[in-house]
Design a protein that fits this description.
Length: about 650
């Protein structure tokens, strides 16, 4: 390809508006950089048009004649973002236009939204659609990493999109500038697509008819971090993760600056995607070249090949990362360019996330059809919420809930339910790291103890039906702790229970009471013990002992033993003493007495005294129906 010096009056710029209006351009500045929206500032002659007839109109800017006749010149397109009328000292009326591709419209929007299970491309398309730019085509690298949750909060749409793309090492640009509605994404760790031939340049000292002369060349080398490292806490695994170190292959310095960053939320693999992207971003200023030339068709991502006799450092192949076209004079242009060596990466600047300060309120939500008060959490006790600032009412994805304390299978747990208003904070201020830190009552969800100036506090839980409740009442003179179970109450104590009741202890049981004691049961009553029942059954497997002082009754499987200084048995109408075997009455002295009659009856009756037996009464009758026998060593009948 041959080059020769331009002829006079060859370079002109044409501005066409809506393909209808052509204006004479008197000045321009064409600016394009990777991962930035191009900006085309044009000054044109006009004295009659109304300003409001321009804003938002489509434009095309063209270098109508190439400086070198065999090079197709650049053209650029966009919409008019702003227009200003100026009058100079000579009375000339000019219009100053700022023209940009339609992506610049995102810079006018500020939004708050939640994006779920989406790639950065999905998010970009959703933002474009929301701004009426669904027609914008996106080509090039297709992001594959799906992000669990991405939160945009009061963030400029353009800054937000630039940020999430840069987090994945994705640059964006307009391939040839002709279409303001086709955006190209590119993973900068890979070679740029070779859509254009490499531009061959030389410095002013080297004369080469096959190369265009660069009137200025500046090579810059800067000290950059020697190594980078990332750390992360994986909440799902409850463990810290380190990426390991990644060292620079270029830095040759005794100084060893390094970058150690903590990332609460990561995109993709910490040891691959995140670490590589961080290294690329930290190495951006390490080596770059800038220069001036008159080439009318430079494109971002295009390769340039520089030859130099003055400095071998400058020689080499580079990738264009920035282009600025301005008029050198009325007929010639100048292009100020920046580029990085092909061995380096023109990584996009990693933009910081805007920090979310303070506490936000939100409403807990569940699956479709969930009603207020329903339980809706996962197996980690996490809940879904909707933020009031999210116009689309998207849920947050499952977020963790802060508790008074949390251990492995133990701790406090009060999981918010559907319809509850909760307070949400953001770890490290990161919008992508929400956590529920509390709950608040509302007009719909009122406190359990709602009296004015109430002295009550406590806990009341309820799903359906009656509540479970732990109540504290600090009212002077009526202090109270009350536990109420809606259905069942279970108390399990591993060892000891002590109860100290100063006055009255009342237990009311509606139906059955059951007491199961493994060993002993000791009850001490200092005064009276009363058991009032229709029927009392005492069962002992070996014996039951009733004891008062020196008197006791022993009931065992072999019999009943009554042992007391004195035993009285009294029947008001009748007393029956019966035995299927032998009935014995014994004592030092025994008396059988009846007020009216005493009958002794049996098949055989034997009355025997070891020393003497005496039968005495005012009237005594001894009668035998058959035979009567009276015998003795001596028989006396008087």
């Amino acid at each position: 390809m041959g080059f020769h010096m331009p002829e006079a009056e060859q370079v002109l710029v044409k501005l066409s508006i809506d393909k209808k209006i052509d204006l004479d351009v008197v000045s321009y500045m064409i600016e394009e950089s990777l991962s930035e929206v191009p900006r085309y500032a044009i000054t044109a002659l006009d004295q009659e048009s109304k300003l409001d007839s321009f804003v938002g109109k489509s434009c095309e800017i063209s270098f109508v004649k190439a400086v070198y006749s065999d090079i197709e010149p650049r053209s650029f397109s966009g919409i008019i973002m702003s227009v200003e009328r100026t009058l100079d000292a000579a009375g000339s009326a000019n219009l100053q236009f700022v023209i940009q591709p339609v992506l610049a419209v995102l810079g006018l929007s500020v939004h708050s939204a939640i994006y779920q299970k989406s790639t950065s491309l999905d998010i970009l398309k959703e933002v474009l659609k929301r701004n009426g730019l669904a027609r914008v085509k996106v080509e090039g690298t297709i992001p594959k990493v799906k992000r669990d949750t991405v939160i945009q909060y009061n963030e400029n749409d353009l800054a937000f999109c630039r940020r999430i793309l840069a987090e994945e090492g994705l640059a964006f640009y307009y391939h040839n500038g002709k279409s303001a509605e086709t955006l190209v994404l590119h993973d900068v760790s890979k070679p740029f697509p070779s859509g254009f031939e490499a531009i061959e340049l030389t410095d002013v000292e080297l004369s080469d008819v096959n190369r265009m002369e660069a009137t200025q060349l500046h090579l810059t080398r800067a000290l950059v971090p020697d190594k980078v490292e990332l750390t992360h806490y994986d909440a799902d695994k409850a463990s810290s993760v380190a990426s390991g170190e990644k060292k620079s292959s270029e830095t040759k310095s005794p100084e060893t600056p390094s970058v150690l960053e903590y990332r609460h939320v990561i995109v993709g693999d910490l040891k691959k995607n995140e670490l590589i992207t961080l290294m690329q971003a930290s190495q951006r200023p390490e080596l770059a070249i800038s220069g001036l030339c008159a080439h009318p068709a430079m494109h971002l991502g295009q390769e340039i090949d520089i030859a130099s006799t003055s400095s071998k450092d400058i020689e080499g192949r580079y990738i264009l990362s920035s282009i600025v076209y301005t008029p050198l004079d009325k007929t010639n242009l100048s292009c100020h360019f920046k580029a990085v060596p092909v061995s380096h990466v023109p990584a996009p600047e990693r933009l910081p996330k805007p920090l979310i300060a303070g506490v936000h309120n939100a409403i807990v939500v569940g699956s479709t059809g969930a009603k207020a008060g329903d339980i809706a959490c996962d197996d980690q006790g996490r809940v879904l919420v909707e933020f009031f600032w999210d116009k689309a009412a998207s849920n947050s994805g499952y977020i963790r809930v802060s508790e008074p304390f949390a251990g492995n299978g133990y701790g406090g747990q009060f999981t918010p339910r559907v319809g509850h208003e909760v307070l949400v904070s953001f770890l490290h201020g990161d919008p992508d790291a929400p956590v529920v830190t509390g709950q608040v009552y509302t007009e719909k969800n009122k406190p359990p103890f709602v009296e004015k100036n109430t002295t009550k506090s406590g806990i009341r839980t309820q799903l359906h039906g009656d509540p479970n409740e732990l109540e504290f009442d600090d009212k002077a003179g009526n202090e109270l702790i009350a536990i109420r179970a809606a259905k069942n109450f279970e108390l399990i104590v591993a060892e000891n229970v002590e109860r100290d009741v100063t006055k009255l202890d009342t237990t009311t049981i509606g139906k059955t009471s059951k007491l199961d004691i493994g060993e002993d049961w000791n009850v001490t009553v200092k005064k009276a013990y009363t058991n009032d029942s229709d029927e009392i059954t005492l069962t002992g497997k070996t014996k039951i002992i009733l004891k008062v002082g020196s008197s006791k009754i022993v009931l065992s499987s072999s019999g009943i033993v009554i042992d007391a200084p004195k035993v009285e048995i009294s029947g008001k109408s009748k007393l029956d003493v019966a035995s299927k075997g032998t009935l014995s009455l014994s004592g030092m002295s025994s008396t059988l007495e009846a007020k009216t009659a005493l009958n002794l009856k049996g098949l055989n009756i034997s009355v025997k005294g070891q020393a003497m037996a005496t039968f005495e009464s005012p009237l005594t009758t001894v009668k035998g129906s058959g035979m009567l026998t009276l015998t003795g060593g001596m028989a006396m009948i008087n």
